[in-house]
Amino acid sequence: MSRTFNNTQPIYLQMIRRICRQVVRGELKAGDKLPSVREMAVQNGVNPNTVQRVYTELERLAIAETRRGLGSFITEDEERLKQLREDLKNEQIDTFIKDMSETGFSAEEIVEGVRQKLLITKAGRV
Amino acid sequence: MTEHIVSFSQVTKRYPGKLALNNVSFQLPRGRIIALVGPNGSGKSTILKLIAGLVRPSRGSVTVCGKKAGRRIAGEVAYLSELDALYPFFTVEETIKFNAGLFADFEHQKAQEILHFMHLEPDKKVRHLSKGNRGRLKILLTLSRRAPLLLLDEPLAGLDPLVRDSIIKSMISYLDLREQTVLMSTHEVSEVEPALDLVISLGNGQIKGMEEVEKIREQYGCSLVDWMKETLAK
C-alpha cells in the first residue's frame, strides 16, 4: 500500500524530501502537474491536511506553484530547480563528510576512498 | 458555526460500580482526523457514546456543534458502533437503502462509489458476509453521510490487514475534511498514524495527553506508540 515513513521525522517533511528527489532525478520535470491533494493522500495513505501542508511548503520554497482551480505544478523556473539539485547534493555530501570525519578519517582518505569506490562501481557496471 | 466541534466541560460518567470518566475537559477542532487511544476500559467508547448522545454524563456538559449532546443531534453525528448493528436478513443494497431512509444526509451516489471501491456485492445477504466485509459495509454506511462529525468506535478491530487498509484508504478518499471531522477509537495505532491529525491518549477515565501527530514526531522524535506508552506511564 502506502510507502512507509520513518517515525522520527514529520511525515510532511519526508514527503517534501521525496518530491524534491523525484525532481532531481528527473522523474518530475519543470511544469509537471502534481497529483491533487486527495489523490496524493490516497496514494500515500496519509491525511489530506498533511498533503496540503506539503504543497504549501513546496510553494513557499518556490519548488511548486499552485494555479487556482488547476492544481499544483512543479515550478518552471529552471534556475530554482538547478539550485535545488545543488542544495540536495551539498546536503548529502555534508552528512557524509561529517560522518566520516567523526569516525576518524582524514580528507585525503575520504577523497581517495570515494575515488576508488567509484572506479570499482564503474568497472563493475561495464 | 462554533470554532470547536466538540466540547467537554468537567464531564464525569459513572456506570454502576465503575467510574468510566473522571472530570474530563477538552475541545476538538473541526476538519481533523482524531484518534482516541488507550487501553481497554480507559473510557474511549464512553466518550464516543457521550458525544453521540447515546449516554448522558453523570456530571458536567458535552456540547456538539454548539448544541447540548442528546438524542436530537443524531442528524449531525454519524456513529459507527463497535458492535454489529446490521440486520442479517437484509442484502447489502437493502441495508444501504434502509440507511438512506433513516438519515436525511445520506448520499446514495457516494454509497455506490464506496460499494464499488470496496468490491462489495450488492445482492449478498448481510448474514452471508465475512466479518471483513461487514466491517467494510459499516464504514460505507458511515462515510456515505454528510454529517459534520463522524464517530468511529473501533472500526479496525478484529479485521485482517487488507480490510484495515481498505477502510483507512476509503476514509481518506471519501471524507471531506473541509466540512467533516472524524473521531475514532482504535488500538491499531501505528497503522492509522499517517492518516491522523491529532491524537488523544486516555487512561483510567482521564486524558493523559493530546497532541498533533506531526508534533510528536518533530518534538519527541518518536512514533505514536512510544508517545502513548510515555503518556500512559505518567
TrEMBL record, chain B:
<protein>
    <submittedName>
        <fullName>Putative ABC transporter ATP-binding protein</fullName>
    </submittedName>
</protein>
<dbReference type="InterPro" id="IPR003593">
    <property type="entry name" value="AAA+_ATPase"/>
</dbReference>
<keyword id="KW-0067">ATP-binding</keyword>
<keyword id="KW-0547">Nucleotide-binding</keyword>
<dbReference type="InterPro" id="IPR003439">
    <property type="entry name" value="ABC_transporter-like_ATP-bd"/>
</dbReference>
<dbReference type="InterPro" id="IPR027417">
    <property type="entry name" value="P-loop_NTPase"/>
</dbReference>
<feature type="domain" description="ABC transporter">
    <location>
        <begin position="6"/>
        <end position="229"/>
    </location>
</feature>
<dbReference type="GO" id="GO:0005524">
    <property type="term" value="F:ATP binding"/>
</dbReference>
<dbReference type="Pfam" id="PF00005">
    <property type="entry name" value="ABC_tran"/>
</dbReference>
<dbReference type="GO" id="GO:0016887">
    <property type="term" value="F:ATP hydrolysis activity"/>
</dbReference>
